[in-house]
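REQUEST ID: PR-0412
SUBMITTED BY: lab tech R.K.
PRIORITY: routine
TASK: structure prediction, single protein chain
INPUT:
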Amino acid sequence: MSDGELGDAVERARDGDEAAFAAVYREVHPRLVGYLYGLVGDDADDVTSEAWHDIVRDLHRFRGDGEAFRGWAATVARHRALDHLRRIKVRPRTTALDEITAEPATPGDSEGLALENISTEQALALIGELPQEQAEAVLLRVVLGLNAPMAARVLGKRPGAVRTAAHRGLKRLSERIGTQPGQFGPGRQDRQTGGGHGGQGGPDGRGGQGDVDG
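STATUS: complete
OUTPUT:
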């Protein structure tokens, strides 16, 4: 689904069109699960459900196109992930992206292999082994499909820093994949994602990307 189509579906969903909401959910949910798996591991399904609870609650306030909706949903999901990590008293690995020296962000052929396989459960496990700033940049840029400025807004960082972190993460992934023959063979299994957009967790009052009225 293109960003234009997603934006139209979000607008119809906001007006109460259940079929349009189902289309939005089918498009965005697997990507959110993949992103959150990189942040909270096996708790991703539960945290994604909590994120959808907030997305549904605040959808009437959202204004923006498909790209903005992806960014807003990612921000809501990230807030939920950080809340979850605080509840279980796990500190996420963090590094200041702004301190990274920029380097060319054009992926080579070997990094294309990482891109091609990044949606598999094995690839997500490898992403989880990256430094946190690289993992989040790769997840936002590749799994959620955000551009660098939107990913930077989700993370509260500069676009150049996010590009660099994504480049370094993809380079490291391609090196790891290259040392594990058969890791991503034809029989690989994609991570299964659960359904349902209800969830537990109360409002946190935080917004996200896009323009939210109110």
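NOTES: The CA atoms of residues 70 and 146 lie 7 Å apart.
REVIEWED BY: pending
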